[in-house]
Structures are given as structure tokens and as C-alpha cells.
Amino acid sequence: MDQTDARPPRWPSVTLYGLGFAVNFLDTLGVGSFATTAATLKLGRLVDDERIPGTLSPNVTYRARWQGWGDWLGTATVAPQEIQFKSFGEARLVARSLGLRSEAEWRAYKSENGLPPGIPARPDHVYASSGWRGFRDWLRVPSV
């Protein structure tokens, strides 16, 4: 709205409130969609175009400050492809310091205690092309 415009801001109409209620209800059922809502608002001229966001993708809208979905949703969850793991050598030192003797012990430990930061649950996948030679090497289990 122009700064010189003395008119008070438009309040949403009863129709717009009804549409909002219907959209929210359909969204809870998994039926709603941003595209249909935006199209309805535009075609029905229910709100000014500048009040309709161009996207409901916060990673696009807030690109400059985007820190991931876990940050956006407040869960602190990091997508697997975004996790920063320690280098193979550093991670292997940490794994060896745990005193585990087998892959089964490794899996039990990670299930019961969780793993230290930067240590992958599946080192065999993460370090497959970075020096991985099996769990015996990972945990420094002597050969028999």
C-alpha cells in the first residue's frame, strides 16, 4: 500500500474467512494445495495480489537466511544429506575409543546410547569410498 494512501487497511471479508476455514480444513485432511488456494484468491479477487505469497516454500522465500527444515520446524533435525560427519580417520579413532568388539556391539551401542556428534550410524555406507575396510578395522578388533 502506498504511504500517502490514508485509507485504513482492508479487513478480510466473510468470504475470505470462509475460504480460509475451508482451506485449513482440507489441508488437515491432506487434500488442500497452495496452488489452488492462490488461484482461488486471484480469480475471485478476494485479496490484493501483493498479499498472496509467490510460494509457500520457505526454503525459496527465505533463501538468504535458510538453515534447513529442522531449524524451520524447530525440531533441530538435519537431513541425512546435510549432516557433516568427521573425516574417516577421526571417526575411526572415536569408534575405537568406545571399546566395542563387533558389528553387533556397534549396532547395540548406537541403539542404546546414540553416537557422538559427527559419527555416522552406518559408517560402512558413509565411508565406503574413504578407506572403509570393515567393522574389524573400524573397531580395531584383532584378527584371530
What is the H/E string?
A: HHHHHHHH
Q: Supply the number of helical segments.
A: 8
| Broad structural category | mainly alpha
Ends: how far apart? 79 Å
Average pLDDT rating: 79
What is the count of β-strands? Answer: 0
Give the overall shape, derived from the CA principal axes: elongated
- Gyration radius over CA: 26 Å
Whole-number tally of structural domains: 2
Strand % is under 5%
Low confidence ranges:
none
How would a textbook summarize the main sheet? Answer: none
How is the secondary structure organized here?
Layout: H1 14-28, H2 34-43, H3 58-61, H4 69-73, H5 88-97, H6 103-113, H7 123-126, H8 135-139
Q: What features would you describe in this structure?
A:
By secondary structure, the chain is mainly alpha-helical. It has eight helices and no strands. It is elongated and about 85 Å long. The relative contact order is 0.08. The mean pLDDT is 79.
Short key terms for the protein model shown above:
144 residues; 8 helices; 44% helix; single chain; mainly alpha
What's this entry about, in short?
The chain is mostly helical.
